[in-house]
Amino acid sequence: xxxxxLLSVAFGEILANKLRSFFxxxxxxxxxxxxxxxVAVIQGMNAYVKENIAGAVVGTNAFQVRRTPIxxxxxxxxxxxxIQRRPRISVGDADAVRTAIPEAQAIGLTTGFPTPQSDxxxxxxxxxxxxxxxxxxPYQEVQxxxxxxxxxxxxxxxxxxRSVVVLGNEVAEKLFEGVNAVGQDVRLGSEHFTVVGVVAPxxxxxxxxxxxxxxxxxxxxxxxxxxxxxxTISVKMREAVQVDDAMQxxxxxxxxxxxxxxxxxxxxxxxxxxxxxxxxxxxxxxLFSVIPAVVAIGIVxxxxxxxxxxxxxxxERTREIGIRKAxxxxxxxxxxxxxxxxxxxxxxxxLLGVFGGWAFATLVATVSPLPARITGWSVLxxxxxxxxxxxxxxxxxxxxAARLDPITxxxxx
Amino acid sequence: xxxxxEEVGLSTTxxxxxxxxxxxxxxxxDWVIVTRGLKREYDMGGEIVxxxxxxxxxxxxxxxxAIMGPSGSGKSTFMNLVGCLDTPNxxxxxxxxxxxxxxKDDELARVRNKEIGFVFQTFNLLPRASALHNVELPLVYxxxxxxxxxxxxxxxxxxxxxxxxxxxxxxxxxxGQRQRVAIARALVNRPAILLADEPTGNLDSTTSxxxxxxxxxxxxxxQTVIMVTHEPDIAQHARxxxxxxxxxxxxxxxxxxxxxxxxGL
Lengths: 413, 265
Description:
The complex is a heterodimer. In chain A, the strands form three sheets. Chain A has a six-stranded mixed beta barrel. Chain A is about 60% helix and about 15% strand. In chain A, a hairpin with a 2-residue loop joins strand 7 and strand 8 (about 190-200). Chain A contains 14 helices and 13 strands. By secondary structure, chain B is α/β, with parallel strands linked by helices. Chain B has a domain at about 65-85 and about 105-265: P-loop containing nucleotide triphosphate hydrolases (Rossmann fold), CATH 3.40.50. In chain B, about 35% of the residues lie in helices and about 25% in strands. Chain B has helices spanning about 15-20, 75-80, 105-115, 130-140, 145-160, 175-185, 205-220, 230-235, 260-265, and strands spanning about 30-45, 45-60, 65-70, 90-95, 100, 115-120, 195, 225-230, 240-245, 250-255. In chain B, the strands form two sheets. A six-stranded mixed beta sheet of chain B has the order 6-7-8-3-9-10, with helices on both faces. A four-stranded antiparallel beta sheet of chain B has the order 2-1-4-5. The interface between A and B is medium-sized, with 23 and 27 residues.
């Protein structure tokens, strides 16, 4: 029997029972769609994190000197104790780093954990839970802030501990609703501040806004809130290739500043944007190890359904098998026919699943902030998975069909 | 080896044994079917049923033979063996000079495909396939390409005057037409023997006559036809009647002597 004949019989059977075929395949379709959609969303997020978040948090061509490492998830107790024993990052440390890297484009300080959340008010309006950071002006350069209105905080603001504030785009929008924010007097907590600038939007990631903040001079901040547990030194270089060398010198400078002896562990952390991306990848790696298990369960269940339907089909078509054998079909012809049918069936399920997953991922990308990227390998895996399921769960029914005795089969009703 | 089957009545086992020749010897090519001491037993839950107890039979090319017998006589078993759907427990079965009783499953499938054309009481057409595709089926398993298949299937349908119904499905055809499609399917691979099992069993008498005419025509054009039936009316069309009883040949009569024998049945 020729391959074209096998396939034409297989397609004929599947099309003759469209609804049944569809329901048979539902398990495979859903599992494969899930696989494709989730992989697409994760891949999309990976790309997004790389392009947007990492840049937004750390800055491009930049690294940070921090008291605590950037961590996704939780520290264990041991690590936590070690980190708690670390000295805080001081302004002096920043000076040391600045001396070590004279060619840096910008070196700025930001206050860190715990970041105070404050309400901000203008006239009778109020916006709640704004993140308040104390910064030095170069931080704004590290972050590549563009200003929709006004300008950045200046060295004079720092030196004079002025009560001035730069607002994130979202805060300004909500608070002023179109009124020019620059020069307005706002209350941050109980203190009065004058708005000097509004930062252009940085965007949202996973519904988390990067535009809901207020930046005030570092010196004014410490007067109000005191020294934070963590303060971050952000260093921006002009070229990406300079980053590694600069990090080394920053590390040496920090060790000297913290009076560490050779062999002693660093009591500070150096982080780059790529480190953040790596953390994100660690997180998604967990997802990637869970997905196959979920998909495998779905596929096995889907495969069993296919096997069940194929067995049913064999017993329904016993007479047909008898007829085919009587006119000269060998057992292997019958086996191949049923195997072809289950493979075509399952592969069709895989393809429908890919389509469903693609549609779902596209829908997610359209209606939610989650990006989605369909990857070639997930499609390939999905289709292969379908074919493999067809083979594995098709063999037994096909063998049963092939082993039927022609005389008995011909007598079947 | 005696070619005088018409002359001698072959009424005794000894006479038949003489015709079919010595065990192991290849029959003369004139004989399309030769069985020697064909035996078939079934184990029915511990009880051995001896369906065939040693059948010696020789059928010449171009013969038109009816196999008769009451139910339980072994005629269905004999039919299955001749049709290569089953294998004997003992004895030889030669078909077109091949000792098919020693063949394995795949070889038997090939023999069914090339040498035998089946016509069944219940037609046994594929319900979802067109008449043309049903006729094509044996050619599919012969590995013949689509274009040649269609051509030969049309040819076979033309032989049974159904070329104008080629695209119809079985449920769009009458019983007689369905049986003619089945006959076309049986003929399409130009088999050595056409094997019909109660071909008119599901048909009314007018249609039965029509189908018998088709067989008649085929027999007249040189096709070997073997027909299993329990209806004397139908058997009457054949030129030779073999009657089985209790797993043995009870009589073997050429047509001229048939009427007289029938009275004795």
